[in-house]
Amino acid sequence: MGFVIGIADNIKMHFVLRGAVLGAIVSAAMAIPAGNGGLVLIAFGIIYGIIIDTIATKVSRKK
C-alpha cells in the first residue's frame, strides 16, 4: 500500500481523501478472498491509507 500511495502523489486530491480511496482499493484486493472478515480489512486499509498518505505528504512538503 505504501508504494501505491507513494507513486500517487500526482493525483490532485486532498491527501486524506486520496489515502482513504487508495487504502480501500488496495485492501479490497486482500478482502475479497477473506470472506467474512473482508469489511474489517477494508476499514483498516482506509485507516492505514490515511495515516500513510498524511505522513508521506507532511515529510515530502518539508523539503
Task: Write up what this structure looks like.
- The two termini are 23 Å apart.
- Helix 2 (15-31) packs antiparallel against helix 3 (38-61).
- The chain has one domain (2-61).
- The protein has 63 residues and is mostly helical.
- The model has no long low-confidence stretch (mean pLDDT 89).
- It contains three helices and no strands.
Features:
63 residues; mainly alpha; elongated; single chain; 0% strand
Mean pLDDT: 89
Give the total of beta strands: 0
What would you call the structural class?
A: mainly alpha
Low-pLDDT residue intervals, each spanning 5 or more residues: none
What would the principal axes of the Cα set say about the shape? elongated
How is the main sheet built? none
Order of helices and strands: HHH
Query: Number of helical runs?
Result: 3
